[in-house]
Every structure is written in structure tokens, then in C-alpha cells.
């Protein structure tokens, strides 16, 4: 859309290869269809379930039995997604961007072959190409995984309530999904191979896990599934999962209605003909290395988003990188995407917002003696009346003593973590120091003032 | 002779307690006097001041109760099957809130004890610059002397005593949070239709008060299902005391009240009350003048609440005896940048001081810094610039820095650039909620650096959103720096990092798509 502003002739090829269970979706990519958007809406549904409980303590009265209807929620969510898909198509049309719902792959220099759903092929040539094909969920490679398990690609449009669910994985996708399913009243177990939220601050990751456990989610640690079998067909059916310990030979079995795999995502770069044009990829991960201007090793081919090596897999990063790239190519701008201090939020039942270094990476980079960690538990005012946990919410900032006590890491665990973190990220971009933090007056009474 | 205490604080509220506790950290001998004169309706409360007892805390909790009412409606859209009817019982909420407040009173007493600060539940007045006469409820007198004295007695709601029946029959925020029974008639059948009967009317005068208290109260009362009307003499647009936090400006104020109107609060604009009478049924009959139509109208209500501003609590202090100067118009104590009054060794912090924001966090910070300067060899003065605040109306309004009007007045409209956007919180989509008033505005200097002068946000969780940006503004944030900050997706706050439409351009500022 940005390129079209500069009156360039632009085409977008988008195609969704159906999931093993046959699921597909419209224009907009992962975020809109099977990522951020449906995730946050269902997380909200779960939060509202908690709000219902709280509201009784605040004087609201209604029947004791409140049940959740999966179909009502999923329909509403899918309707909203549909409106976004539609919105994108209209937007592309209005901006004169040609859109083809076709699978694109390189066949030679400056040439791409587009094959649509019906198998009709067309060739297109362009001066420049941008690869932004993103990723898809990984499967375990064990018997029964593709036949019986679902992934986040299927969850948000599942036409029946998943019931008793086993979530395999410890990524933020796994924990967010486990959290929201439990919040809707489902029985949830999470099977974890080793640690939670690899790459995130581990102190906080453990607090998140603890909170989830205290709120009814079971964790099976240090096990991996080796086989999934179907006991009974149905919507949902019944599945038997066999798992082996990672530390010994112990085997366990369990029965679930649904098994959700969330063990990672693989870049969609292996089947788009990159070898035909000489674009190098990381053979192991499939990701594409680029320079700081998002250019691949082939000068006229660029890449943005989840497929990039060593870059964050986030929607706003992809958007920013894409826009700036085009502004550089066609608008004479020089701004590069700033990948430092990119804030994120994990929407687990207890939300986690972060920006900058985790405690362990800060120690690693600067040395323990050069960093100072300030921290505090807090009790959101809104949790007092319904007597909710009074020592779980937590905030911590990490400062670099050598650099004027500059704030290099910000972490908050509590409600509205995303809303809180955004402003702090802006402040860190301005070089926030501990002194400036201390001299800023808090808004009372909110969580962020802690 | 020698003074008994190093520091005596009169007033055990946000500012007073913070100052006392900080001073005690330095090993000083500190005492606090706190006393609550009952309201005309007889309401009183414990240690902690306005914020804890009749301000921020109960207000936010009741605001939360109202928000939860909306959440119940939203929940249906998200698949939660809640059998109707749903209704709200005031006494359950009030009890829970009052219990929590009492636990805070208790907590404060324990803290003072732990920090070895002597606490007197007495009303204090000056006998001489270093002597305070304390009077208990029972009339027992104690005399206390101190080297330094800090006045932090805060304020109390004003009554429009020129209106017949105002004092006898009306309540204020002092009473609202302690009502045991609903200020409306019966617990109301909340939805699917609002079946109410009588209700509440709150009169607010906007000439010298911020409308926040009244709008916040009217907001949560409406949210709890009570029939609420706000009467105001003028429209919510008049200029406010510019020393009060970033003045609520025209545009933002009207967006907030527009939302309240669509939310169910009734507004009687350009009207002022003439008298309040009690009817046989115990309901109150209010007679008012409609200045637009030139007519007189009446209606009856269960409760009449006055929110016409707060007056500094200085009367009982006997300030004239010791020569502490007050502002002749407002009655507030005049202080300099170091919180010193016209009398050496007598200081003042918090709502009682002239020209300062009436906010808890500023009182706390000022009190702490004062103690550090007096006893901790610090020279740091309180910085009252860029204090962020939030109005907790049904659709919240958070802001920091200058309003658009103030910026234009200060720098000239040619030198000011205003970026803005109408956005829709993701959670409103499925809930089918109206986001018409969800709005963000950023006021910047136009010249090269484009420093941010003010940020205004209307939407859910406004306080949480604004806090971090307030830090950024403290660091001198510029528009380019904000644009370099990546957004967190999906949140409302990220819309701030995407602001790019200026008012000057005249373009449609509605956010579209992802």
C-alpha cells in the first residue's frame, strides 16, 4: 500500500495453503486471520469470564450458573475477521494495487509464476520483489499429528468447542491459547519439553507459569508426545496421547478431546523457487538473512516480516519495516527500521509487557555489577474488592549503572500490560533514565504508576 | 524551651502522611494530627485523607463496578450466557468498598506506628508559630510544640448555601461513597431495558471547579443502573484554572460528555437550581431556572448531590494568629517553590496550597521532597510540570502536558502541530460498542525537532496508556522519536505511535484497518 502511494505499479500475491485439516482463510496474513486479532478477542472473552466473577463482589447479581458458548464467540470473531479481509481487498483496490489470490514462486530472474486455486498459471515480471510469506505452525513429526492434532491455524475457527485440551509447547502461542481456553471454562493441560517462553525473561516466565497453574491449568513438564491415536471420532472426538519423558524412559498416557500443537513456526521459504533466483536462506531454519535495509543477497529482492533471520516475529515490526523500505526505495528517505527496544506483550491470563533486555541478557551483556534491577509486586486496586491475588502482579526495570542508570529493560506483569508498556517503550526510545522515572509523577490510582 | 517535635504535620492525608513518614526515616521526632469534621449529613471517616476515604480510591472502585456492568453486556457477545435479569445491589458494593477503605485506614495507622510517628486524632489550630493546640472529639485539649510545621489539611466540598435547602437536603462526594443504601430508589432491573424510577441529580458549577468529580460520579452512578441527571449552569467548555492539571479542553470535554449522554446520563445544560424541598414521600423536589428558555422547572429525585468545587480546610487552623498568608479569592495557602509559607518553619503541601494541582501523587511527591530538604540535606524542588492525570468517566480521559488551547496561546497556532486520530478498540468490535468518542490527540511544536507538548487520550484504560508517555515527555520526547517506537499489537496505546494525520490537513482522522 505504501508503494502505491508513490504511483508505482504494484501487485500482491496472496495464497493460503490449507491446513492439514483443510482450514483456510482470506487476505490479511497471520495476524488478522490466525494470530493477534482472533487471539486477543478470545483472550478478551476469557477476561470477561473473570470479570463476571469479580462483578458479583461489586454488587452485580445474576444466576450462579454461567456457561460459555464457543460457537457464539467464534462466529463473532470470524465475522470481524471477515470484515478485515474485505477491508483489505477494498483498500488495495482503492490504492490501485493489483491483487491475485494465487500461489507465487520464482521461476527465473525477475519472473514469478502465480498459480490460483483452480490451477490456472500466469507469469509476472517486476523490477523489484518483496518476499513476505511469513510462517506456518510446525508439526511434531509423530504418528497421528497431522491427522488428529490442530494448530493455531485451526483453533480460531474451530466449528465446535475443543473441550478437554492438551496444548503441546511452551511458546507464547501455547501459553496464550492454554490461558484463554481455560478462561472459557475448559479443562486444559500444557505439555512442556523444557522451559517456558524461551528467549523471554525467565524470572517472569516462571511467574506466568505459576499463575496459570494456580488458576487451574495443569502442566506436564519434561515430556514430549510420541504418538496420537483416535479413540472416538466426533466434534470433538476423543484422542489418546502417549508421551515420553525427556529425562528418562518413563511413558505416560492421557485422553483429551483436542490436542493443540504450538511448538514453533516454520518459514514459508522452501517452496517458492528461491533457488531459481539465487536467494540464500538459512538451510536449518529456512529464514532469510537480510542487511539492515531488508535486502537479500539478490539486489532486487527484499524481504520483511516473520521470514527474516534474527528479527522479531511481530506484526508492527513487519509493518514498520515494510513501510520504511518502500519510503527508501521510492521516496528518497533514509530511515531504517529501528529494531532496538521493540516492545511486546504476551496475552496470557496474567499479561506480560516487556521492552528491552531481559534480566539474564542484561547481565550477560553488561555484567552483573553494572546493572541494577528495581522491582516491586503490586496489587491492582480493582482486584482488592473481589479479593484476587494480592502478590502476583509484578514490575521490574533494569538499569545500566555505567550509563547514567539508563533504563535498558522494562517488564510488567499485570492487567492491561500492553497499554502500560507502550508509553514506556516510547520513553525508552528517548533514553529514559532511572532519575527521570523517579521524577515523573504517577497517575493515581492505576497499575502503571507502580 | 525546646520544641517537642522536629516536625508536626497537620492533616493525615496523601501529602501529610508522605511527608511525616519520610521525615521519620531520617530519625526525626515526628507527629501527625488528623481529624475529620463530620459532613453536614454526619459522614466521617478514618486516617488517610480525601484520596483514601472520599476520593480516588472509592471513586475508582465504584467506577470499576460500573465498568463491570458494561462487561456483563459485552460478555454476551463473546459467548457468555447470562440469564436475565441482571441487577446491581448498592449495599453489597458499598460494603465491599467501605471495608477496603477501612483496611487502608488501619494500614496507615500501623505504618505510622512502625515508623515511630506519633499520631493524634485531634483538630489542630495555631497558638503561636511553633505551638499547636489539639482538640479531641470529646473536647480534651493537648498542646504540642514543633520546630517545623507542615499544613496539609486539604479541602472539603463546597455547598451552594445560597440555594434554599441545599445544606439540609443535599449530599456531596463526602457522603456518596459512604451511603449504605442506594441513592436511587430500588435496585434496578438493569437490562434489557432500564426500568427505573426516580433517581439522582447532581448539580455542578463549572466556573471554578473541575467537572471531574461530578462527571465521574454521574458516570458510575449511571453505569450501576441509576437514573442520573447532571445539571450545569454553563456548557462544559469554560476555561479552567490553568494551574489545575492540564486544563480539560473544549474538544476533549465534549467528547467525554457526549459519550456519557449516549451511555445514559441525562444533562440539563444552562440550568441552575433555585431551591430544594422535601416532599411527604421523602423524595426531594428541585426547582431550577432554565436560562435558555427562561422558564422555571421542577422534578423530584431521591438524592441531590452538589459538586460545586472544594474549599480549602483552613478555617479552624487560626492562620491569622501566626500570619500565614492565604489567597484572598481561593482561601488557599500561598507557598513558594519550596512549599514554604509566609512564616518561616511553617510549610504547606497538597490541596491546601495555592496554584498546585489537586492530586494525590503530586501531594505525596511534594511531601516527600519537603521532608528530604528539611532533614535529608537535599535541595531538590518539586517539579509540577507535565503532571499526567486521568478522569475516570465511563470512557476515560488521560492526559499529560499542554492542552491544544494552552499550546496555541503559548506558542501561536502557526508554531503548533496537532496530530489526531479516531480509533476503535479491538474489544469493542465483537461487543458491538460505539467507539465514536475514542480519540487521541498529540500537540507538538512545529519546528524541526517537533517536541511533544501534550498528549490526550480518550478510551479504555486511559491511565495505563498515558503513564509511560508521561515519562517520555519528561525526557523531552519528539514526534520523530515517537514514530520510531514500534507499536504493541493489538492495543489501544499503539495508535499513539501511529499518529500521522494533522488537524491542519483537514483530512479524515479515522483509523482504518490494521
From TrEMBL, chain A:
Superkingdom classification of source: Eukaryota
GO MF annotation: an example: flavin adenine dinucleotide binding
Ranges for domain FAD/NAD(P)-binding: 2-322
Root EC class: oxidoreductase
Cofactor: record remark: Binds 1 FAD per subunit.
Residues annotated for FAD binding in this entry: 40, 104, 306
A Pfam family matched in the record: Pyr_redox_2
Domain Pyridine nucleotide-disulphide oxidoreductase dimerisation: 342-449
Positions of the catalytic residues: 444 (proton acceptor)
Record-annotated disulphide pairs: 31-36
Enzyme Commission number(s) of this protein: 1.11.1.2, 1.8.1.9
Coiled coil: none
Record's GO cellular component terms: cytosol; mitochondrion
Keywords attached to this entry: Disulfide bond, FAD, Flavoprotein, NAD, NADP, Nucleotide-binding, Oxidoreductase, Redox-active center, Selenocysteine
Family recorded in the similarity comment: Belongs to the class-I pyridine nucleotide-disulfide oxidoreductase family.
Function: Reduces disulfideprotein thioredoxin (Trx) to its dithiol-containing form. Homodimeric flavoprotein involved in the regulation of cellular redox reactions, growth and differentiation. Contains a selenocysteine residue at the C-terminal active site that is essential for catalysis. Also has reductase activity on hydrogen peroxide (H2O2).
Protein name as annotated: Thioredoxin reductase 1, cytoplasmic
Native species: Uria aalge
Gene designation per UniProt: Txnrd1
Automatic annotation (TrEMBL), chain B:
UniProt KW keywords: Disulfide bond, FAD, Flavoprotein, NADP, Oxidoreductase, Redox-active center, Selenocysteine
Domain (Pyridine nucleotide-disulphide oxidoreductase dimerisation) ranges: 387-498
Residue spans crossing the bilayer: none
Gene Ontology BP terms: cell redox homeostasis; cellular response to oxidative stress; glutathione metabolic process
Pfam families noted in UniProt: Pyr_redox_2 (PF07992), Pyr_redox_dim (PF02852)
Domain (FAD/NAD(P)-binding): residue spans on this chain: 5-173, 213-367
Cofactor: FAD
GO MF annotations, alphabetized: flavin adenine dinucleotide binding; glutathione-disulfide reductase (NADPH) activity; thioredoxin-disulfide reductase (NADPH) activity
Enzyme Commission number(s): 1.8.1.9
InterPro entries, sorted: FAD/NAD-bd_sf (IPR036188), FAD/NAD-binding_dom (IPR023753), FAD/NAD-linked_Rdtase_dimer_sf (IPR016156), GSHR/TRXR-like (IPR046952), NAD(P)-bd_dom_sf (IPR036291), Pyr_nucl-diS_OxRdtase_dimer (IPR004099), Pyr_OxRdtase_I_AS (IPR012999), Thioredoxin/glutathione_Rdtase (IPR006338)
GO CC field: cytosol; mitochondrion
Family: Belongs to the class-I pyridine nucleotide-disulfide oxidoreductase family.
Descriptive protein name: thioredoxin-disulfide reductase (NADPH)
Organism the protein comes from: Uria aalge
Gene label: Txnrd2
Amino acid at each position: 500500500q505504501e508503494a502505491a502511494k508513490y504511483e508505482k505499479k504494484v501487485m500482491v500475491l496472496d495464497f493460503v495453503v490449507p491446513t492439514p485439516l483443510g482450514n483456510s482463510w482470506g487476505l490479511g496474513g497471520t495476524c488478522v486471520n490466525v494470530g493477534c486479532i482472533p487471539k486477543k478477542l478470545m483472550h478478551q472473552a476469557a477476561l470477561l469470564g473473570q470479570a463476571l466473577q469479580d462483578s458479583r463482589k461489586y454488587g452485580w447479581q445474576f444466576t450462579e450458573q454461567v456457561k460459555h458458548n464457543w460457537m457464539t464467540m467464534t462466529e463473532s470473531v470470524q465475522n470481524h475477521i471477515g470484515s478485515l479481509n474485505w477491508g483489505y481487498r477494498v483498500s488495495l483496490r482503492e490504492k490501485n494495487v493489483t491483487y491475485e489470490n494465487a500461489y507465487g514462486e520464482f521461476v527465473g530472474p525477475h519472473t514469478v509464476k502465480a498459480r490460483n486455486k483452480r490451477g490456472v498459471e500466469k507469469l509476472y515480471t517486476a523490477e523489484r520483489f518483496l518476499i513476505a510469506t511469513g510462517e506456518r505452525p510446525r508439526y511434531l513429526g509423530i504418528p497421528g499429528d497431522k491427522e488428529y492434532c490442530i494448530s493455531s491455524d485451526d483453533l480460531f475457527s474451530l466449528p465446535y468447542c475443543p473441550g478437554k485440551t492438551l496444548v503441546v509447547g511452551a511458546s507464547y502461542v501455547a501459553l496464550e491459547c492454554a490461558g484463554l481456553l481455560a478462561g472459557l471454562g475448559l479443562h486444559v493441560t500444557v505439555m512442556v519439553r523444557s522451559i517456558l517462553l524461551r528467549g523471554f525473561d525467565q524470572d517472569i516466565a516462571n511467574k506466568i507459569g505459576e499463575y496459570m497453574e494456580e488458576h487451574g491449568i495443569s502442566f506436564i513438564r519434561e515430556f514430549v508426545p510420541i504418538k496420537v491415536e483416535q479413540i472416538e471420532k466426533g466434534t470433538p472426538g476423543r484422542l489418546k496421547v502417549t508421551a515420553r519423558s525427556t529425562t528418562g524412559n518413563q511413558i505416560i498416557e492421557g485422553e483429551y478431546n483436542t490436542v493443540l500443537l504450538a511448538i514453533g513456526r516454520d518459514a514459508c521459504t522452501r517452496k517458492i523457487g528461491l533457488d531459481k533466483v539465487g536467494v540464500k536462506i538459512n538451510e536449518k531454519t529456512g529464514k532469510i538473512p537480510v542487511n539492515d535495509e531488508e535486502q537479500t543477497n539478490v539486489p532486487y529482492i527484499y524481504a520483511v516480516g516473520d521470514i527474516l533471520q534474527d528479527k522479531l516475529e511481530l506484526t508492527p515490526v513487519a509493518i514498520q519495516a515494510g513501510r520504511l523500505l518502500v519510503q527508501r526505495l521510492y521516496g528518497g528517505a533514509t530511515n531504517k527500521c529501528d529494531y532496538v527496544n521493540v516492545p511486546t506483550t504476551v496475552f496470557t491470563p496474567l499479561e506480560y509487557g516487556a521492552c528491552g533486555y531481559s534480566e539474564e541478557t542484561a547481565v550477560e551483556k553488561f555484567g552483573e555489577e553494572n546493572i541494577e534491577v528495581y522491582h516491586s509486586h503490586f496489587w491492582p486496586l480493582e482486584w482488592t474488592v473481589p479479593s484476587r491475588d494480592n502478590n502476583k502482579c509484578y514490575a521490574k526495570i533494569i538499569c545500566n549503572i555505567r550509563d547514567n542508570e539508563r533504563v535498558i529493560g522494562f517488564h510488567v506483569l499485570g492487567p492491561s500490560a500492553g497499554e502500560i508498556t507502550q508509553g514506556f517503550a516510547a520513553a525508552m526510545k528517548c533514553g529514559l533514565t532511572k532519575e527521570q522515572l523517579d521524577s515523573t509523577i504517577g497517575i493515581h490510582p492505576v497499575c502503571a504508576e507502580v | 524551651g525546646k520544641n517537642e517535635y522536629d516536625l508536626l504535620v497537620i492533616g493525615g492525608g496523601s501529602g501529610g502522611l508522605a511527608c511525616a513518614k519520610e521525615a521519620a526515616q531520617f530519625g526525626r521526632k515526628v507527629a501527625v494530627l488528623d481529624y475529620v469534621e463530620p459532613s453536614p449529613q454526619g459522614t466521617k471517616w478514618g486516617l488517610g485523607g480525601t484520596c483514601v476515604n472520599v476520593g480516588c480510591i472509592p471513586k475508582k472502585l465504584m467506577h470499576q463496578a460500573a465498568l463491570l456492568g458494561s462487561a456483563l453486556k459485552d460478555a454476551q457477545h463473546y459467548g457468555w450466557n447470562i440469564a436475565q435479569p441482571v441487577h446491581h445491589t448498592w449495599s453489597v458494593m458499598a460494603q465491599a468498598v467501605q471495608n477496603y477503605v477501612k483496611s487502608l485506614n488501619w494500614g496507615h495507622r500501623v505504618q505510622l506506628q512502625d515508623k515511630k510517628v506519633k499520631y493524634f486524632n485531634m483538630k489542630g489550630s495555631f497558638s503561636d508559630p511553633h505551638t499547636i493546640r489539639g482538640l479531641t472529639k470529646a473536647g480534651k485539649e493537648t498542646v504540642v510544640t514543633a520546630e517545623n510545621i507542615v499544613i496539609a489539611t486539604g479541602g472539603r466540598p463546597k455547598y451552594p448555601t445560597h440555594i434554599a435547602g441545599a445544606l439540609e437536603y443535599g449530599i456531596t462526594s463526602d457522603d456518596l461513597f459512604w451511603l449504605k443504601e442506594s441513592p436511587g430508589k430500588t435496585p434496578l432491573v438493569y437490562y434489557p431495558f432500564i426500568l427505573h424510577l426516580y433517581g439522582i441529580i447532581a448539580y455542578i458549577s463549572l466556573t471554578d471547579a473541575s467537572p471531574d468529580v461530578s462527571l465521574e460520579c454521574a458516570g458510575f452512578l449511571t453505569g450501576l443502573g441509576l437514573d442520573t441527571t447532571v445539571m450545569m449552569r454553563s456548557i462544559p467548555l469554560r476555561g479552567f484554572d490553568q494551574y489545575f492539571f492540564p486544563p480539560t479542553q473544549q474538544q476533549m470535554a465534549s467528547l467525554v460528555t457526549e459519550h456519557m449522554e449516549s451511555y445514559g446520563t441525562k444533562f440539563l445544560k444552562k440550568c441552575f437550581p433555585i431551591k430544594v424541598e422535601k416532599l411527604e414521600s421523602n423524595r426531594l423536589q428541585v426547582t431550577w431556572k432554565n436560562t435558555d428558555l427562561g422558564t422555571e422547572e421542577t422534578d423530584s429525585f431521591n438524592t441531590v448531590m452538589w459538586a460545586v468545587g472544594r474549599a480549602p480546610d483552613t478555617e479552624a487552623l487560626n492562620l491569622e494568629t501566626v500570619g500565614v498568608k492565604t489567597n484572598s479569592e481561593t482561601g488557599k495557602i500561598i507557598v513558594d517553590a519550596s512549599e514554604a509559607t509566609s512564616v518561616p518553619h511553617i510549610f504547606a503541601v497538597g490541596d491546601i496550597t495555592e496554584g498546585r494541582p489537586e492530586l494525590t501523587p503530586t501531594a505525596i511527591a511534594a511531601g516527600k521532597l519537603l521532608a528530604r530538604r528539611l532533614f535529608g540535606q537535599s535541595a531538590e524542588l518539586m517539579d509540577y510540570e507535565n503532571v499526567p492525570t486521568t478522569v475516570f468517566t465511563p470512557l476515560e480521559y488521560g492526559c499529560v502536558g499542554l492542552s491544544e488551547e494552552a499550546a496555541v496561546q503559548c506558542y501561536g497556532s502557526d508554531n503548533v502541530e496537532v496530530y489526531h486520530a479516531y480509533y476503535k478498540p479491538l474489544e469493542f468490535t465483537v461487543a458491538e460498542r460505539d467507539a465514536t468518542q475514542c480519540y487521541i490527540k498529540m500537540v507538538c511544536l512545529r519546528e524541526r525537532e517537533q517536541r511533544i507538548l501534550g498528549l490526550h487520550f480518550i478510551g479504555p484504560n486511559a491511565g495505563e496508556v498515558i503513564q509511560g508517555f508521561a515519562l517520555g515527555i519528561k525526557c523531552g520526547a519528539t514526534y520523530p522519536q515517537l514514530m520510531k517506537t514500534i507499536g504493541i499489537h493489538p492495543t489501544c496505546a499503539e495508535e499513539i505511535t501511529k499518529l500521522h494525520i494533522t488537524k491542519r490537513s483537514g483530512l479524515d482522522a479515522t483509523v482504518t484497518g490494521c
